[in-house]
Specification:
Elements lengths: L12 E4 L5 E4 L3 H30 L40 E6 L6 H11 L3 E7 L12 E6 L6 H6 L6 E5 L6 E6 L9 H12 L13
Parallel strand pairs: 3-4, 3-7, 5-6
Antiparallel strand pairs: 1-2, 5-7
């Protein structure tokens, strides 16, 4: 024990000051260690934050700024008609190659002849004109039924279907792919207006080009 240490202090205090002695507790090593650790942690946080800011503004890495698109997923313009894949025109029979039997399943007289005359003006060949058979007479609830061979489902039936919107298409056992029965139903009023029918027929025979597939983002 030093001569300057008051008795009973156990070496915990020492005398300081030139004129008036004062007692001061010695610095604790734990406080020094805590201060060093806190300084290192603060420096580390500052460095990590700087790297994040650089990453955001330069677009580096997989992460991007909130709300922005990834670097490899930029917005691409839609393909122009010149770059779209051309659609193949369907080989369908012309109206003149389709023979239509117009049959009236309603109680209204003269309906079959009026409809047959209009179809003839539109270029269709006309077959039988008269009343529907017992199987369909007064039993067709919609505007009409298009009845043809199974081989007519992708040919004559859809072509004639452009002339009467909402008509139901059915097949039977006949072997004539270009002959179709048009059975007029209870809600039939008239054929589809010619401009609309011509537009539907053009869309059927010459479909629009299919757009090219745009690349997807990964």
């Amino acid at each position: 024990m030093s001569m300057l240490t008051p008795p009973g202090m156990g070496g915990k205090y020492r005398i300081t000051g030139d004129k008036y002695p004062r007692m001061r507790r010695g610095r604790s090593r734990s406080r020094i260690v805590l201060a060093v650790v806190a300084s290192v942690a603060a420096i580390g946080l500052i460095g990590w934050g700087s790297l994040q800011l650089v990453d955001v503004f330069t677009g580096g890495g997989k992460a991007t700024a909130a709300g922005s698109a990834p670097a490899d997923c930029t917005k691409r313009p839609s393909p122009s008609p010149s770059t779209a894949k051309p659609a193949t025109a369907r080989k369908l029979p012309a109206p003149a190659q389709i023979k239509v039997n117009v049959l009236n399943a309603t109680p209204r007289g003269g309906l079959a002849k009026e409809t047959a005359d209009e179809l003839k003006k539109r270029g269709f060949a006309i077959g039988d004109v008269g009343n529907a058979t017992k199987a369909y007479d007064k039993k067709v609830k919609g505007p009409g039924i298009l009845l043809g061979a199974t081989t007519a489902t992708g040919a004559a039936l859809p072509v004639l279907g452009t002339q009467l919107a909402g008509a139901e298409q059915k097949t039977d056992t006949r072997d004539k792919p270009t002959e179709v029965d048009l059975i007029l139903g209870n809600t039939f009023k008239s054929l589809t207006a010619k401009p609309a029918a011509d537009k539907a027929l053009a869309a059927l025979t010459h479909p629009k080009p299919a757009p090219s597939a745009s690349p997807t983002c990964k």
